[in-house]
Amino acid sequence: MRYKIALLPGDGIGKEVTYAAVQVMQAVAESFNITLEFKEQLIGGCSYDKHQSPLTDETIQACYDSDAVFLGAVGGPKWEKLPHHLKPEAALLKLRKSLGLYANIRPAKIYDALIDSSTLKKEVLDGTDFIVLRELTGGIYFGEPRGFDDKRGFNTMVYSREEVERIARMAFKFAGDRNKKVTSVDKANVLEVSQFWRNIVHEVHKDYPDILLTDMYVDNAAMQIVHNPKQFDVLLTSNLFGDILSDIAGMITGSLGMLPSASIGSKYALYEPVHGSAPDIAGKGKANPLAAISSAAMMFNYSFQMQKAAEIIEMAIERTLANGYRTADIFSEGCELVSTEKMTNQVIGNYTDIFNEQALGVFTL
Questions:
Q1: Pairing mode, if any, of strands 325-326 and 336-337?
Q2: pLDDT in the model for residue 364
Q3: C-alpha distances out from residue 257 to 27, 34, 360, Å
Q4: DSSP per residue over 2-45, as a string?
Q5: How many domains is the chain partitioned into structurally?
Q6: Do 185 and 123 sit in the same domain of this protein?
Q7: How many CB atoms lie within 10 A of CB 88?
Q8: In this structure, are 129 and 248 located in the same domain?
């Protein structure tokens, strides 16, 4: 089997974590006897520097021609003063729209070895394992009209029936493979668009009677993620609310450097770590590659239907952390501080060991 992957390393540490993930992907390819074909393209600030555009038609076409897209990170202070449509972040919005990536999946799972790294108490976090399913191509980021002058600024939050139906259906399907609970997040008490969202979600729910559906206002959801994260299974959110809540969920796990994500459409999919480009540590070997590596695991799971490969990658990350290896962002006393390269090599070594152990029937974490 051959898979084509478009690589978009981007800016800052995006390059380092992408190459770390590629090494893990190659280890998977070797062990499962598949072929991965990589094609690298520019995106973000580095694309603007070369082409005066953060996302070129050539890059979009390379994504169209691939079975999956893997992104590192974009942005940095160097490009902050550019007009909005030329900023590196604009490339992400355009790419998501171009590929029809309407659902963003962000897991919030606590690794046992990192449970003391969070600012929350262990008893609050222990057992936390939920996903934030964020609608990605509608809502306030894309609504018209929009604009600003020296007297006012305005954006429009709008959703169509189709946009809400398809993300709601995905949420209920995901919940069916998990703990059968969906929490739909809105602000229906003050926003008409949220009342519309709630109405459509409840209509779709009629097709999934075995799934428990709960409505929750976004402000309460933010509090509950910190107060009692174990209550959640699948958090279904609009674009803006999901953007905020997924970062809150990320911080309760201890570090944004640990969070992977997948953006899924009907035909295409993009995988990326949640963290930013961190230009202050770029090129210093300090970047945490685990979110990118975990994003690669999601790619094998969702795009290539290689659930076993994804499972072993996650086990390898867990074992690496259990063995006490830490990059600077998750470092704690008694652990070994390691570089991006060493962390990656440890994961690959543990991946190989676990793959062989499972083949021999002697696996232990």
A1: parallel
A2: 53
A3: 22, 29, 33
A4: EEEEEEEEESTTHHHHHHHHHHHHHHHHHHHT-EEEEEE---TH
A5: 2
A6: yes
A7: 27
A8: yes
pLDDT > 70? residue 149: yes
Extract the runs of DSSP E, i.e. beta strands, from 11-159: 35-40, 68-73, 101-109, 129-135, 147-148, 153-154
Q: 309 lies in a domain? A: yes
Q: What is the mean pLDDT of residues 260-275?
A: 95
The predicted-structure confidence for 132-142, as pLDDT tens digits, reads as follows 999 998 999 98
* Contact (Cβ atoms closer than 8 angstroms) between residue 142 and residue 118: no
Q: Cα(45)–Cα(170) distance, rounded to whole angstroms?
A: 33
Q: What is the CATH number of the domain that holds 90?
A: 3.40.718.10
Name the pTM for this structure.
0.89
Residue 89 tokens read as 């972040």
Q: Give the pLDDT mean for 155-164.
A: 97
Q: Residue 196 sits in a domain of what CATH number?
A: 3.40.50
- Catalogue the active-site residues: 141, 187, 219, 243, 247
Cα distance between residue 73 and residue 95, in whole Å: 13
Entry field: residues in the chain? 365
Number of H helices, E strands in the chain: 12, 14
